[in-house]
Structure formats: C-alpha cells, structure tokens
Amino acid sequence: MAYNALYFIFALLLKIPKDYEAVIGIETHVQLSTLTKAFCSCPYSYGSFPNSSICPVCMGLPGALPVLNSKVIEFAVKLGLALNCNLAFNSKFDRKQYFYPDLPKGYQISQFDVPIAAAGFLDVDIPLEFGGGHKRFGITRVHMEEDAGKLMHAENGNLSQVDLNRAGVPLLEIVSEPDMRNGIEASEYAAELQRLVRYLGVSNGNMQEGSLRCDVNVSVRPIGQSKFGTKVEVKNLNSFASMSRAIDFEISRQVLLHSQGQEDQIVQETRLWEEGSQRTITMRKKEGLADYRYFPEPDLPSVILSQEYVDAIQNCLPELPEEKRRRYEKMGLGMQDVLFLANDKNIAEFFDATLAKGADAKLVANWIMSDIAAFMKNEKLTINNIKLTPEELSELIGSIKGGIISGKIGKEILFELLAKGGSVKELIEKKDLVQIADPVEIEKMVDKVIAENPKQVEQYRGGKTKLQGFFAGQVMKVSKGKANPGLLNKILLVKLNSKS
C-alpha cells in the first residue's frame, strides 16, 4: 500500500471517535486441558506425530458412537460461573452441518439454541499506557463443542495433508457481546480471558499452540446511528498485538469506504489478517445460521446439572484475576504493580506466599517487578524455575529492613539465591556480610577516607557538596559494602562540615 494511503488511513483512525463508531465482538475458542478428547478415550498432546492419536469415534467412522467426557461439563460450569453467567441446568448437544476436509464426520458436535451458560460479563482493567480505567464486557454465551482436525499445506501448494489428532478435542466457545470499540479494548478482553482460563486450570491458553483462538467481528457505523453496520469476521490472529492491529486496520478500511460513500462494498465475509503486509484480505463469504442446518445430536443425551454439583464447583473456584487485583489495590499497590502481579497466576502465588511470611507488600512487589523479573527475562525462566523461595525473599527483605545487611549486599545475595538457592542467614554468616552499625568503627573509616583525599575535602568545603557521594562510595569500598548507609552519611556530613 502506498505511503499516502497509509497516511490517509491513519488520519481516518484519528477521526473515528468524532465521526464513526466501531462495534466489536469476539468469538473465543478455548481448548480444554482434559486428559482425553470430548467423546472418546484418545489423548491429545500438542505437536505429537500426525494421526497418531485417533480412533473410529474421532475419525467419524460409521457405527462409532460418542460418549461425553464428564470433565468437559465440569470445566464448562467452572468457566460459566467465573464469567458470571446463568447456567442452563438442562442443555443439549446439536449437530452443526458443514463440510471441510479436516471434519471427518461432515458435521461438528456443538451446542446451538441451549448453551450451557449465557448472559454473563467479564471485568477488565485497561493498562495505564492505554488510558487506564475499568471496563465491563458482556458475555452472550458459553457452549461446549469439539474441535476439527488440522490441514497441513506444502510450501509449493501442490499437496495438502490432514492431521486428525486434534479432531474431537474439547472446546469451550465464549461469545462476547459487541461491547468493544477499539483494538486495545478487544485485545485486553482476550488477554483477560486467557488469564481467567489459566487461573481456573481449564486450559493452558497458549495462542501459539491454538489453545486459545479468537475470531473478531468488526463493523463501523456513523456516530448516533443505532443500527449496526455490516459485520466482518477477522481470523488468523495469533497474538494480542496482532489482534489490536488487525482490528484497527479493519476499522480504518471500513471507515474509508464509508467516507467515500461505498459502504455497500462492505459485505459479510471472513477475512484473514496478513502479519507481513499488516492488512486483512478476503478469505470466504460468511455462512449464515441456516447454512449449518442445526438439529439435536441424536447420539448424546441431555446434559443435566444438579444444584449440588454446581455448588460444589462454585465452592472450589480459586481467587480469580479480577478479585486478586482488587485485593492488591486495597494493600495500597499502584495499578502498574497490580496488573503485573496478577497477570501470571504463578507470580501472584509467589507474591502471596512471600506476604504470608510477613514481608511488606510494596517491598515484595518492587523486588519481584525489578530484579527478579529482570533475572527471569535474561535467563528465560519462569518464577517456578528460579531457586529463590518466598520464605527466603521474605527473610532477605526483613534483613535489609532490620539493618542486618545493606540494600546493596541484599541485591548481591538475591542473585545468588535466584541462581543457586540457599539460605539468607547462611549466606550472611558464611560471607561475613553483617552490616557494620558501630558508630566508632564507621567513624574510623570516615576519618581514613577524609585523610586520604585532602583535595576533594577542600573542594567540598569550597561549595562542591555533591562530592559527598564520592566520600560515601570510598567509605563503602573500605567497609566492603557493609557500612550502614544512614549512619555512614550522618557521620560523614558532620566530619566534612567540621572546620577542624
């Protein structure tokens, strides 16, 4: 696309809040972390050899009958409750008819008019760099279904192969209300869904493995118009950043057509996001509900829930990301800290475990978000792989706060604990790192440094007071980093400002 056209689209994006409104909804498919598939006993493992985990049921062979995996129902109820939905205590499966080479039966077992959960919502905190604030997005429905297989295409385009390992893998489809208005809101909604399924343990949520797949529906209408514009579906979104960019491009494309009086050229279709060219392209015209010819699945009974079953799952729900963020806010943590800590369930658990040992929340957050996060990034480790334990981090923070060691020595100990593990107390004793807090001993070191640097003393007393840092550094060097900084600077100021 020419530079001028790109500039024009960017200019149109800036105009959107005033002249046009985007309406965005998302259909999210979550692949469930069950041991076996939805309707047979075949296991599923991402990346396994093609067609190595299949049977007559997931191959759709004549006479093979499905048997529902009860774990799928449990996970569906769990997610429905977490999304504040109303549960259907009597739901059913349906056949969704369509042909595709990776759909061996010629239909997909899904849910149509009676989904297991509906009419919920998801609360999202928008990061500060995108304007901040809290948003609530409606959830239309959550329903159970099976996945299709996977087509593999040769690079030269002359050969396509089908891998049915994924056929029959259980999915939950979450359909949002059309409540989002830009790419940032949509990508943050999807990221919150990913956090939620990981917290619940129903899916690993890995987009790169296809465990969480989002299809975005985008339409544009003039501000003030109540009728929705023509909806366009965008697929092939393999990251939240891609989703945001794809949506903003599609909005700009539709705005451009509206502004040129060509809105009739916006047709209901499925478009693909091309990461390389940063644009959407037509894939196929969108099917309607009538094309799928839904009817009740005759080989499966209704799914009937009891109140006792639902209550048992409700009582076992973990603290969810939204609840965790509100709890962290009440501790006095800023939104940047809150979003970082609650983003990853394992980091949040590490943080909470450290607090349970008596450490200060803000200090723990600072250590995790700075030095510990930097170490994990450099070493390509998760918080579960580091050698440091919550107990030792709490002990380290307490040792610094109690004046046993300095902050500088604390950092040195931290990196050893991260890489090798061990005990804070043992390291302090073994390396003789206890902070020097004896005023007499520190005064001797200050006197020595002042005596060895007469020129700098003269400059300090002549008005170059910033040299105090030089003297403090020299004393720290003499003390091998063990001098109490507060006491050191107090004695140093008295000595430097003394005329004798």
Automatic annotation (TrEMBL):
It is found in: Mitochondrion; Plastid, Chloroplast. Residues 349-496 form the Asn/Gln amidotransferase domain. The keyword Mitochondrion applies. Gene3D superfamilies: 1.10.10.410, GatB domain, N-terminal subdomain. It is an enzyme of class 6 (ligase). It holds the Pfam family GatB_N. One of its GO terms (cellular component) is chloroplast. The keyword Ribonucleoprotein does not apply. Residues 1-22 form the signal peptide. GO terms for biological process: glutaminyl-tRNAGln biosynthesis via transamidation; mitochondrial translation. Keywords: ATP-binding, Chloroplast, Ligase, Mitochondrion, Nucleotide-binding, Plastid, Protein biosynthesis, Signal. This is Glutamyl-tRNA(Gln) amidotransferase subunit B, chloroplastic/mitochondrial. It comes from Pisum sativum.
